[in-house]
Amino acid sequence: MICAALTTFLFSCEDLPDDNPAGGKEVIEDVLSINEIMQSNIDCIMDDLNEFPDSWFELYNSSDETVKLDNYSVGLSENVVDSYHLPSSIIGPHSFVLVYCDKEAKGLHTDFRIDSGKGELYLFKKGTVCDYVSLKKQPAPNISFGRQNEQSDKWGYQLESTPEHQNCGSLAKDILTKPIIETNNAILLGGGHFF
Description:
0% helix; mainly beta; disordered N terminus
């Protein structure tokens, strides 16, 4: 299922930065990376529990080999002791897996939630940081933040959220709020109601 993030928002695609939100921290090179994040999932993706998890992120395996997830853990700080260990599952070559951040603490459901614009998300391999992303403020629900494509270091708001699929390749730097239009001394709000 691909969740369109276009709702009633207008996107600005000008002057996207070339920087990686991981900043300058040292990481080991690895085939598994954080690819896309949604910090406020209202109804974009339903999980294996038939619920809409609060937040989720997507991991991407860039290699030609299957990767065992139980070698990895994820967390919201550099302290690996506080990280959540991923289950004994695998991710196929050039494939994606969603990790749900809903405090369920079992399988691919972490023991933490991702808060909009607060901190960082870390991926560890055998206790060493192999990827991390500074969390940007999510401007609205169902908007994801991710790489332009799976091999890119360019990040931005996704014009279309693509859980478990290739990223759409179109990024936005800013998202404008719903327009308010005045007509005949009345104000038309985003839902089409006159006052």
